[in-house]
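FIELD: query
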Amino acid sequence: MAANYKKDTIVYQIYPRSFQDTDGDGIGDLRGIISRLDYIAELGVNTIWLSPVYVSPDDDNGYDIADYKAIQPRFGTMEDFEELVEKAKERGIGIVMDLVINHTSDEHEWFKRALAGEQKYKDYYIIKRGENGKLPNNWGNFFAECPWTKFGDSEEEYYLHLFSKKQPDLNWHNPAVLEEIKDIMRFWLDKGVVGFRCDVINVIYKNSLSNGKKQLVLTGREHYLSTEGCHEILKTLRREVLEPYGAWAVGETVFVDIPGAKDLCAPKRGELDMVFSFQHMEVDQVFVKWFKTRLKPKKLMKTLTKWQKGLDWNAVYFENHDQPRFISRFADLGPYRKEASTMMAGLLMSLRGTPFVYEGQEIGMVNGDFKKLDEVMDIESHNIYAMAKKLLIPNPIRWKMIKRTSRDNARTPMQWSAEENAGFTEGKPWLKVNGNYKEVNAAAEMTKENGILAFWKKMIALRKTNQILMEGHFKSVYAGKQVYAFERKKGGKSLVAVCNMTGRSAKLPKRVIRKSGVKKGSSIVVSNYDACDELVLKPFEFRLLER
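FIELD: result
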């Protein structure tokens, strides 16, 4: 672990354009974040992960960076950023920056100079000639595009982009790229940030550009997923940048399994502190995320247990800017939005690892209520819709795919109040505000003594102060069709977390009764219901039991 990394760290992710607008342009900004720092501090978190605020043409909402050392004007100024860091620090909150180093924007100065013919900068990117009018290889693309686009006016040269065509991949075989990135990281660390969330970090180094084995998803990935070159780069960044500053790093890792995650975040290897794995977020998908099936709680439980046992420490999360709202995945949510939200809060804060909370999760926000494709801004969603149309998938099915899975479900503006536009902006929001904002908003939650926000605060405070929850070992107790139970144990003391993951009542399993000592007088440390039936769990009930 990094020198300043602590096991009481709890991270709150902010998607800046959707958090709080202060200048009326309909897009959130840094001053908006500053204005909400007291809210974040009162929630109890001690770290903010800030999605990209760099200069960008916004083809992929800031993940296409045109200048790594400047603030996007619509978000504010560098002075605003410095004030944010300082005022967050005054409240005991550190800032983690999003680090996007697999690719830049095609409007970055490096790429512009490459297009102008400067060989130095052409070598910053992956540019290859096609042969006999064919593309350089048969690889796939994360955004359902062709991964090769003609380089400038050339009829023979193409540049690689695993994501949007406006996101050319960097050439990590070039040592100069590594030096540039080290300089960028030091620039922000000197500004006072405490670490980085590293975007798609395990695909940055391509072993070769050979044709890949034909696969349903991402042909060619065996040439760039978690390569040894990637490991060496991460070790260098840890040794030469992160360690001298006492900074920490979490990596977004594509298609990672437990052995791969261990390679990336085992302390002795000196690469990342933890990773975002995706398997628990994929339990309700068929082959790819665009085809969803009914969420089976038992499958989720088994996946969570596998990762809890497989890694000593990891990032734990259920929502972020790329995923639909988690409680919207429950087919039987019905009238139990509050109960499902608080159950997930209890679950998240009881698992072993660093909890990551996404903006709006703490007030029970759900998927966007989009009615048509024109209301969706996400480039990935539009590309998938177009591809599905070419495959002659009927329109109702295409729209159902997008409505359930679009990344914009998590990007709808933060719902602060029942005022117009949910108190997010006085202008026209960049993305449609969910129509339920008059009932679902932070102001309303702040008045509820036993509301969703209050329970999140309770669980966060408990997680930060309870040594068993912070450091205790994990042991699975029960995983059934409805009920998930596990033990956290430290120094001979233990807590048992019990979750009913359905909108139906469930009997407390005998194994849980034996393990938690319910009939011998175990005490409920916390529950999301005011009154509990000793042997029956109510819909989406959470209990934390202490013998």
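FIELD: remark
The longest strand covers residues 483-490.
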